[in-house]
């Protein structure tokens, strides 16, 4: 099973490099695409279609994958799953500090469609929330830190229907450099491989101290 790591706004695939190396050391093949424009000015759907094209070009149309989405990358991954047919091949989505309910920081006056779409109660986020039944059968996880000044409030990363986990890390970006996050993602991937269709139930997330 291949792992696809999706970066956030104002980043490239290189920002996922440390996390990618941790997974590769455990024998997993990883992809870290760069989605452009980097500031999301053409919107979430545009980025998700790039993600779809990248995955199909690299892996064909059938090979099973797990998605790991950081920040906006988690929302891009959701759009790919819920609106572009990605759910047919995806076993799990691990979102890391993703604004499932939006972030008040997205109200900053910046000319990016994705920024507008990541505001609380946006049309896009409402559409995703209303079509989540398409994710049935996919293992869903959401990791967040209470010390997040990019996702405001940090509880916006709490994703109904997912296994929600609180990891204490200083600031937003540090979550993709957390050994605890990597260990818990690896545990989830191993569980999928060993029990097939096992999917966490809502409300089973645990609050865990960071190492």
Order of helices and strands: EHEHEHEHHEEHE
The portion of residues forming beta strands comes to 15-25%
Which structural class best describes the helix and strand composition?
A: alpha/beta
What is the approximate shape? Answer: globular
Rounded average pLDDT = 93
Strand order of the biggest β-sheet:
2-1-3-4-5-6-7
Give the low-confidence spans. Answer: 197-211
Largest sheet: 7 strands, parallel
* Contiguous helical run count: 6
Radius of gyration in whole Å, from Cα?
A: 15 Å
Distance between the termini: 28 Å
- Helix content estimate: 25-40%
Number of DSSP E strands = 7
Folded structure, characterized:
31% of the residues lie in helices and 16% in strands. By secondary structure, it is α/β, with parallel strands linked by helices. It has a seven-stranded parallel sheet with strand order 2-1-3-4-5-6-7, with helices on both faces. Helix 2 crosses helix 3 (72-83).
Relevant terms:
disordered C terminus, 7 strands, 6 helices, single chain, 31% helix, alpha/beta, 211 residues, globular, seven-stranded parallel beta sheet, 16% strand
Fold topology:
Blueprint: E1 2-6, H1 17-24, E2 30-31, H2 44-59, E3 65-70, H3 72-83, E4 90-96, H4 113-117, H5 123-130, E5 139-144, E6 163-167, H6 179-195, E7 207-208
Parallel strand pairs: 1-2, 1-3, 3-4, 4-5, 5-6, 6-7
Helix pairs in contact: 2-3
